[in-house]
Amino acid sequence: MSLRSRLSIAVAAGALAVTALATPAVAGDDPGDPRDDWGQNQGQNQGQGQNQGQGQDHNPRLSRGVVTASSLALRSAPNRGGQIIRWADRGEVVSIFCRTKGQSVQGNRQWYLLTDGTWAWGSARYIRTIGTAPRWC
Fold first, then answer.
1. Which helix H or strand E contains 15, and what residues bound it?
2. How far apart are the C-alpha atoms of 130 and 132, rounded to whole Å?
3. Which CATH number goes with the domain that contains 90?
4. For 56, what's the count of Cα atoms within 13 Å in the CB-facing half-sphere?
């Protein structure tokens, strides 16, 4: 291997190392990251009867919604072909990060990106929003 090849590999490796040090390694490392609240407040906001979905520490950048389907597949992409990440049951309160247009589900093309522990997409056809509408992604 020539000296020039070794030098370019070393420069590339150094640039990669500097980038890795400057970038947070895990989602939620940024104090302003909306995902921070979910590690701490997810259990607090579920199952609280009439206060359900109205946690005092709720991040204002997130919207809330309630699952209306008996069981809703939450997926890796905003379409029916996306891998199922988990299932949400009727009445479950979910945190909505943003909305986008995707595959139509019974005439509704909006999908919500949910931040409940894992990031997954749910069809807006089966999620009723609470309060303000989610922002666009």
1. helix 3-22
2. 7
3. 2.30.30.40
4. 0
Chain CA centroid to CA 28, Å: 11
Residue type, 111: W
Look at the chain and report how many structural domains it folds into: 1
Residue 16 lies in a domain: no
DSSP letter string, 43-100: HHHSS-GGGTT--TT--TTSEEEEE-SSEEEEESSSSTTSPEEEEEETT-EEEEEEEE
Over residues 94-116, mean pLDDT? 97
C-beta of residue 44 within 8 angstroms of C-beta of residue 54:
no
Q: Return all residues near 76 (Cβ < 8 A) that are at least 6 apart.
A: 82, 83, 84, 85, 120, 121
User: Which residues constitute the domain of residue 70?
Assistant: 34-130
Q: Tens of pLDDT along 81-91?
A: 999 999 999 99
Note the pTM of the prediction, 2 decimals: 0.59
Region of 2 (left: φ > 0; alpha: ψ -120 to 50; beta: rest) is: beta
Look at residue 40 and tell me if it is in a domain.
yes
In this prediction, residue 11 has a pLDDT band, given cuts at 50, 70 and 90, of low
